[in-house]
Amino acid sequence: MRATDPQILEAIKSVLKKDTTIHSQKELFEKVKKKLSNNEEVQISAERIRRIAKKNGIRIQVHSRKGKEIKTCPFCNNEFQDILSEDLFGKSTVIGKLCKNCKFEIGVGRSPARYIFRK
Ligand SMILES: [Zn+2]
Known about the structure:
Number of helices: 3
Structural class: alpha+beta
Bound molecules: zinc ion
């Protein structure tokens, strides 16, 4: 069975009504999946849940760690823009990446490690 975006959003909201903070994407995924699977198991991915949550204004905090840099936004797949910082001599260096679409930011040389979802 396939779930629609509004169905998934409803499930996310209902999960967050009960537990106002969900501490990982995996936890949210499992709870949302359980909520949607009544008779039949639904086919959804954690990534899709993350995107739907973000798009609909669910607060998501991203913890990052040192690691392989990501090329595109984890929420909308957009290409990043460089965040530049100028030093005292006017020389600019890239200090991070920004998604213009959803305002997600991440530092240079870091990758998302954990997503925290809040009502
Ligand atoms: Zn984005």
